[in-house]
Write a structure and sequence with these properties.
Keywords: Membrane, Transmembrane, Transmembrane helix. The protein has four helices and four strands. The protein has helices at 3-38, 63-72, 123-130, 138-176; strands spanning 86-90, 95-100, 105-110, 116-121. The chain folds into two domains: 1-41 and 132-170, no CATH class; 45-121, no CATH class. The protein has 177 residues and is an alpha+beta fold.
């Protein structure tokens, strides 16, 4: 490989490195700032399911009873039962999880007495779905993801060429001796 090609590949690596640094800064800024703006003042839950709740001999609440008990407590972040778009029961934990997936809010209630155990803004799910500027518009995040894929591919190929070239250069130098 000629020295011009090496210099071109090294410059390319520098620019790709700058792109990665900028993406990392965007990601860190989003991880810190976005939950404050989109979390509506709720604490964050980060996909952490609460510890198992002890079971007693009382009967489990039906889905309707659990929902009614939940709404009777007037939890933060919700105004009506219509805002709940997903309910999951964890039998091993004895817990219901209620979710508003459009606002990334989670509430966990006890499956037997209906008391609110934990609630908040699901920061990790939000960053997974809306990170890298997808919260501005989905095509922006998709464009960033596409260019990241292409640049990573280019970085791999050019790095491989530099790696192989070092061995070919050493082999050529040995032949000259």
């Amino acid at each position: 490989m000629k020295s011009n090609q090496k210099m071109t590949i090294r410059k390319l690596h520098r620019w790709i490195g700058l792109y990665i640094i900028i993406l990392t800064l965007i990601w860190i800024t989003e991880a810190i700032a976005l939950p404050i703006f989109f979390g509506s003042g709720l604490p964050t839950v980060n996909d952490a399911i609460p510890a198992p709740v002890m079971k007693d001999n009382t009967a489990f609440l039906s889905l309707e009873e659990a929902m009614q008990s939940f709404m009777d407590q007037h939890p933060d972040g919700i105004n009506s039962a219509n805002e709940i778009d997903a309910i999951t029961y964890f039998p091993n934990l004895n817990v219901y999880q209620l979710q508003n997936r459009t606002r990334y809010f989670d509430w966990y209630i006890h499956a037997q007495n209906g008391k609110l155990i934990k609630y908040g803004f699901n920061k990790s799910f939000f960053l997974e779905k809306q990170g890298l500027l997808r919260w501005l518009h989905p095509w922006i995040g998709n464009l960033i993801q596409f260019f990241s894929f292409l640049l990573t591919l280019l970085l791999i190929v050019s790095g491989f060429l530099l790696f192989v070239n070092s061995f070919l250069t050493q082999k050529a130098q040995r032949r000259e001796l």
